[in-house]
Write a structure and sequence with these properties.
heterodimer; A: mainly beta; four-stranded antiparallel beta sheet; 11 strands; B: mainly beta; six-stranded mixed beta sheet; five-stranded antiparallel beta sheet
């Protein structure tokens, strides 16, 4: 039982390049999330998907797009990377509304944009 | 607005109790969570509390919730070196029940 799997673990991009961060969960969870973590700023919500077929903006959505491909997979795309997007990106999933439904996190993707 | 605040650092002596504090602004929060992050790793859930409770105890962990003041605390009894980590509080925003907002995290260091 892998939980939440993120790929890649590390990535270096040049300014203006694009890439997609992949996330998959095997817990049959309804909700999935993308956060970024920067020193001193904690985790900030980029986008989330409350259920398959829906996506919503979080606190810092600019410069990102997401796709909820199916119930298992939720990808994050950077169309034109900028140095300000250098960060550690975490994907998470939860059962969804209605109960305590805590988040289960992947191990993160460390992204550097030069 | 939605905001969760924590102090950035806490240093305690091994064997003492650690108390990590958190304040939040959204009065409609339903659940509040504490997560632990060790270096280079993702976040692990430590415990959570429902907003109609004022205390929850789980082994060495005690969570206190003051809903009137929108204040949450995590007490770790008999702090050990393995407790060194960053601790995040988070709230589930009721108006959009899937949305979960995190604080900036408190880095706990342990002195011998």
């Amino acid at each position: 039982n892998a939980g939440v799997t993120q790929t890649p673990k590390f990535q270096v991009l040049k300014t203006g390049q694009s890439m997609t961060l992949q996330c998959a969960q095997d817990m049959n969870h309804n909700s999935m999330y993308w956060y970024r973590q920067d020193p001193g700023m904690g985790l900030r919500l980029i986008y989330y998907s409350a259920s398959e077929g829906t996506t919503d903006k979080g606190e810092v959505p600019n410069g990102y797009n997401v796709s909820r491909l199916n119930k298992r997979e939720f990808s994050l795309r950077l169309e034109s990377a900028a140095p300000s997007q250098t960060s550690v990106y975490f994907c998470a999933s939860s059962e969804g509304p209605g109960a305590a439904s805590p988040l289960h996190f992947g191990n993160g993707t460390r992204l550097t944009v030069t | 607005g939605e905001d969760v605040e924590q102090s950035l650092f806490l240093s305690v002596r091994e064997g003492d109790s650690s108390v990590i504090n958190c304040t939040y602004t959204d009065s409609s929060s339903t659940y509040l969570y504490w997560y632990k992050q060790e270096p280079g790793a993702g976040l692990q859930l430590l415990t959570y509390i429902f907003s109609n409770m004022d205390m929850k105890q789980d082994q060495r962990l005690t969570v206190l919730l003051n809903k009137k003041d929108k204040h949450l605390s995590l007490r770790i009894a008999d702090t050990q070196t393995g407790d060194s980590a960053i601790y995040f509080c988070a709230e589930r925003i009721d108006s959009s029940a899937s949305k979960i907002i995190f604080g900036s995290g408190t880095r706990l260091s342990i002195r011998p």
